[in-house]
Design brief:
mainly alpha
């Protein structure tokens, strides 16, 4: 049950990342954005000088969830080898989702707007590879600590950036109050479950 709780939390966080995070009070589809859309929309807010948003924080929940998935899949004697490989591969793919499409990603590493996102994705993939290579040697206590840290990293910075900087600027763009919707709450719920799973492992 403890192990399943962590996987449910990861799945919920990933689902929430793809789901809508913000919409207008008029709930128009054109004014509804998920985390990836929000990252791109924030680019134009920054260009217009309306707010200073660290938009890469909105990508961190997906990277944190991917690393947690890789860590979950690497638990000793819990999964068959093919399934462990498949889940680790999925985690690496999730880390690459925020990359711009071809051919733009070829220059993303030196683009002023995209280089931080690019290197964040690369760091995520390297993190998954490191987890795959080493985490089966990690003891239960340190594995729990890693899950707890990933839960905090996935939940706190993006939520802070969303409410403190992005939401007021988006409301200004919309000309009416913007409001968070269920995708953001699903991400937070997923990382809460991940943190609870880490705590139960130590109980």
């Amino acid at each position: 049950m403890k192990r399943s709780l962590a996987l449910i939390g990861v799945a919920l966080a990933v689902l929430g990342w793809y789901a809508p995070w913000v919409t207008s009070t008029r709930r128009l589809a054109a004014l509804t954005y998920n985390a990836l859309d929000l990252t791109e929309f924030s680019k134009f807010i920054i260009r217009a000088g309306m707010a200073s948003i660290t938009r890469e924080w909105f990508l961190v929940p997906l990277i944190a969830a991917a690393l947690a998935l890789a860590l979950w899949a690497s638990q000793p004697d819990s999964l068959s080898r093919p399934l462990r490989y498949a889940l680790t591969f999925l985690a690496a793919v999730l880390c690459l989702v925020p990359l711009p499409p071809y051919p733009f990603f070829l220059k993303a590493y030196r683009s002023a707007e995209d280089r931080l996102s690019f290197w964040l994705c690369i760091a995520g993939v390297l993190g998954v590879a490191l987890v795959f290579a080493l985490s089966r040697r990690v003891t239960g206590r340190w594995r729990s600590v890693a899950f707890g840290m990933l839960a905090l990293l996935g939940a706190v910075p993006a939520t802070w950036e969303f409410f403190m900087r992005a939401l007021p600027a988006i409301s200004q763009v919309y000309g009416s109050p913007a409001q968070p919707v269920w995708g953001l709450w699903a991400v937070l719920a997923g990382f809460v479950l991940l943190a609870v799973s880490a705590a139960l492992r130590e109980a």
